[in-house]
Design a protein that fits this description.
8 strands, 40% strand, globular, four-stranded antiparallel beta sheet, single chain
Length: 111
Amino acid sequence: GVVRRYRRLHKGKIRHAEFCPGCSWMLATASVDRTVALWDIRMLRSRPEDRPLAKDLLDAVAVMKHGAPINSAVFDPIYGNRILTTSQDSELRVYESHDWSNPSVVVKHPH
């Protein structure tokens, strides 16, 4: 395909990206930089060359911080109002749309 825009969304490598089934414009990205970010792709623009990379996450709709690199972030397949994250800190977390900043459920699991 043709590259239409260039934008670095995280400081680290993105391990997983997924569109919301209920909102085709919402993209979740899970990164080794210990964050999951939600993006409104209608609002993404190419990053100006003089803008520091650290400012990029400020454009996210929401950022979910974790204690270790993230393996995946998966939307609820029916409504898209929840996200399940898995990370290398041995936790499964569920976030809900009414408060993306705090997990509603945290489950410890062994590797």
